[in-house]
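Appendix C: a fully annotated inverse folding record. The material below is reproduced so that readers can follow the format used throughout the book. The structure is listed first as tokens, followed by the designed sequence.
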């Protein structure tokens, strides 16, 4: 516990001198105000506008809208029309009637016409109520394979102005909703029917929980009278699929449905964001709400750090010889990457990204030292293990990011700043735990340092020298195209370096699961925050649906999906979805005709079995053309750059089939 102190005293610890502020957390009020100022928008256009003013600006994610009490919605959906504005601020003059007029002093204004009686509000169905509430919560997109059990919900979404996209599989629909949440910070919805649809949605629900992504998974159920009678495709939703989510419910009455929606929004958006599952009976969706009935949605306020907590974390970093910052999705969701870099610069502390959050800051910044997890060069783990103090902000120390729970190293003191920090019994407990929004913490810390903090010159110089050496070591370890190769097939590292050379800095890259992704994990440099989407759930089939979601949100930006032949085989049909939606997605398929990562595990076993990991040939380029996209096959190095150039400027999706020799197992392979 921090000892109480006088607000007028100076505090000196370690290498940092900080005077106490006159009021807690300078600039925190402004930061919170920015988070809370999220006005309800008009009906969503095809492209959600974002604003950038400089390279390395904040990630292009939209702040999660705060939830305000919802007004009663009993009529047809329409955003409230603004009152007409008067240029002079005066009431308009009443025109004189035609014919002879009386003297001015005797003019009698005409009585205003009686307004026509207002039509009684149309009754609101449960399906419409759900749609309206989710729209108020920030939902603008829904993804589904339609089913007869939730037609009332589809009608409600259409009336509420929510874009509904038909997919070829519910698993892809859930991945799209999850990726949308990662990219924008706003929730999306996925919808499935009964047991079959819910089962297919499950993979995306699990991914959303792993990634702390707000998402609404809605499942149409059997009619209320058939519940518990093993009705057609009936399922105990909350006892099965619902257990993958943060929260789930199956209301059985109109009143319970209203309450369930209120709780669902609060659970999805509050604390650690995550997926919620709502089971809605087919006939319940058509039930009418009583006049004046609607959900009251709670206002979600991000937690604020105390001044003492900020001070303690700063002294932890300043007093160390080899500190490091490990940053994750919480920084991206809070759109506070620039503040993180400013903190790192002021304290001269390097930044490492958590697994699959490599875009948390610009990779070109000299204080960036790489991404943890699969594909990381040895320098990343070595630098984390050498840290005597660590700030973990906006991420959870999962198995992959912590290198099998070996980071932080024994003896290292660390602070955990997260919107919902959680203790892990396999890790040393943090010296400081701060429950706070990343932006509120970082802006408070930066404001304190800029106005009151001084890092002594000797310590600053020593850190700068060490950081330069660490950066040089990381750059040398991230060369992924230097190994000589003349075929057969392409060098995966040269594909990734060519893509980095050709892709605009604001281009968005998504990735599927598999060892093919380790080349990008190590060698691709993300130059702007908010330009990468990958799931920490490690689910195959994610890359293409994620790219479709990104393309729908940002039609003006280039989107590239990196997938293996295994993952592409699982979601190949969604190429047609991309074509139908008018996207220009480039889909790079690394094809080694096997489940390569699993095969590598087999090769380490004494039996040397290769059961079930070899796959047959698929002409992905031809399949892409059959689904309406462009299709290109690349078998040698000379064809890589021309194929990528054409794919990045094409007027429709392009499947680039990259033939890869199976000996290219992962980024550390040397065939």
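Designed amino acids, in order:
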């Amino acid at each position: 516990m921090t000892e109480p102190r006088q607000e007028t005293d100076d505090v000196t610890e370690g290498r940092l001198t900080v005077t106490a502020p006159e009021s807690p957390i300078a600039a925190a009020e402004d930061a919170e105000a920015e988070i809370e100022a999220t006005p309800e928008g008009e009906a969503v256009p095809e492209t959600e506008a974002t604003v950038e003013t400089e390279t390395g600006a904040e990630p292009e994610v939209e702040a999660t809208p705060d939830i305000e009490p919802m007004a009663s919605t009993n009529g047809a959906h329409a955003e409230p029309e603004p009152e007409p504005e008067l240029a002079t601020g005066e009431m308009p003059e009443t025109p004189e009637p035609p014919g002879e007029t009386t003297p001015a002093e005797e003019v009698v204004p005409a009585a205003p016409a009686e307004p026509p009686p207002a039509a009684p509000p149309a009754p609101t169905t449960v399906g419409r109520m759900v749609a309206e509430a989710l729209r108020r919560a920030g939902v603008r997109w829904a993804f589904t394979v339609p089913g007869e059990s939730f037609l009332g919900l589809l009608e409600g979404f259409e009336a509420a102005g929510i874009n509904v996209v038909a997919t070829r599989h519910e698993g892809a629909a859930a991945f799209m909703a999850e990726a949308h949440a990662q990219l924008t910070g706003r929730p999306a919805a996925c919808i499935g029917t009964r047991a079959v649809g819910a089962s297919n949605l499950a993979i995306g629900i699990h991914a959303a929980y792993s990634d702390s992504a707000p998402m609404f998974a809605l499942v149409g159920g059997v009619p209320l009278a058939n519940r518990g009678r093993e009705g057609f495709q009936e399922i105990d939703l909350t006892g099965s699929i619902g257990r993958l989510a943060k929260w789930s419910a199956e209301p059985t009455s109109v009143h319970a449905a209203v309450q369930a929606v209120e709780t669902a929004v609060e659970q999805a958006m509050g604390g650690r964001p995550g997926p919620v599952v709502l089971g809605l009976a087919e006939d319940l969706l058509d039930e009418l709400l009583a006049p004046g009935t609607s959900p009251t949605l709670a206002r979600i306020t991000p937690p604020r750090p105390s001044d003492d907590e900020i001070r303690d974390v700063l002294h932890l970093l300043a007093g160390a010889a080899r500190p490091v910052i490990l940053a994750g999705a919480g920084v991206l969701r809070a759109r506070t990457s620039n503040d993180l870099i400013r903190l790192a610069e002021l304290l001269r502390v390097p930044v490492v990204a958590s697994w699959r959050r490599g875009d948390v800051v610009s990779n070109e910044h000299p204080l960036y030292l790489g991404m943890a997890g699969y594909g990381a060069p040895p320098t990343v783990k070595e630098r984390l293990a050498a840290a005597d103090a660590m700030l973990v902000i906006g991420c959870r120390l999962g198995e992959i990011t912590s290198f099998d729970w070996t980071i932080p190293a024994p003896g290292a003191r660390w602070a955990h700043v997260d919107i919902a920090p959680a203790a892990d019994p396999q890790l040393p407990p943090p010296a400081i735990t701060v429950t706070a929004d990343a932006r509120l913490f970082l802006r408070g810390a930066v404001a304190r340092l800029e106005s009151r903090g001084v890092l002594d010159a000797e310590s600053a110089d020593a850190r700068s020298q060490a950081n330069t050496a660490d950066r040089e070591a990381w750059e040398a370890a991230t060369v992924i195209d230097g190994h000589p190769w003349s075929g057969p097939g392409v060098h995966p590292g040269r594909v990734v370096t060519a893509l980095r050379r050709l892709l605009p800095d604001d281009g968005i890259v998504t990735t599927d699961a598999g060892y093919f992704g380790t080349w990008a994990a190590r060698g691709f440099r993300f130059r702007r925050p908010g330009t990468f989407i990958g799931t920490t759930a490690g689910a195959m089939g994610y890359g293409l649906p994620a790219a479709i979601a990104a393309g729908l949100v940002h039609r003006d930006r280039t989107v590239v999906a990196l997938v293996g032949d295994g993952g592409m085989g699982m979601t190949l049909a969604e190429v047609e979805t991309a074509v139908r939606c008018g996207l220009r997605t480039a889909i790079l398929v690394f094809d080694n005709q096997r489940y390569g990562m699993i095969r590598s595990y087999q090769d380490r076993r004494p039996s040397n079995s290769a059961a079930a990991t070899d796959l047959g040939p698929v002409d992905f380029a031809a399949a892409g053309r059959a689904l309406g996209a462009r299709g290109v096959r690349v078998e040698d190095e000379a064809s890589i750059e021309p194929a990528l150039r054409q794919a990045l400027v094409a007027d429709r999706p392009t499947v680039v089939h990259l033939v890869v020799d199976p000996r290219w197992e992962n980024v550390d392979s040397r065939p």
